[in-house]
Amino acid sequence: MIDVFSVLRGAIVLDPILSSIIGGVLVGFGIGMMLREETSTGGTDLLAQFIARMTNWNVGIIIFLMDALIITIGSFIIDSTSFLYSLIVVTVVGVVTTMLTQSKGWRHYVM
C-alpha cells in the first residue's frame, strides 16, 4: 500500500503546524475509537486504561498527561521547534481522544 502512495511523496506540502493539527486529529480519532471499544494500542494507552479504571478519570485526559510528561522530559534533548510541534500534536490528540471517550460521545460536540 505504501508503494501505491509513494508517487505522492513531496507532491503535497503543508505547513508544519497544520500538519501537526491534522495528524493529531487523525491519531486522536483512531485512538479514541479504539478506546471506546475498550481495546488498546499497548504502551501508555494500556497503562492509561488501567489508571482510568482505578480513578474514574477520563482515559483521554490521562493519555494527554502522560504524553505531555514524556514530551516535556524530551524537551531537554530536542530543539524548541520540534518541541512545539510535538506539544501541538499531543494536545490535539488529547482533546480528540477525550471527546470520543467521554460518556457524551463525539456527537455532543459536533451536533
Automatic annotation (TrEMBL):
Q: Does the keyword rRNA-binding apply?
A: no
Where mainly located? Answer: membrane
Q: Does the keyword Ribosomal protein apply?
A: no
Q: Name one GO cellular component term.
A: plasma membrane
**What is the membrane topology listed in the Swiss-Prot or TrEMBL record?**
Multi-pass membrane protein
Intracellular or extracellular location(s): Cell membrane
* Bilayer-crossing regions: 12-35, 56-77, 83-101
Q: Which InterPro entries match?
A: UPF0750_membrane (IPR051461), YitT (IPR003740)
From the UniProt record, list the coiled-coil ranges. none
Q: Which UniProt keywords apply?
A: Cell membrane, Membrane, Transmembrane, Transmembrane helix
Q: What is this protein called?
A: Uncharacterized protein
Q: What is the lineage of its organism?
A: Bacteria, Bacillati, Bacillota, Bacilli, Bacillales
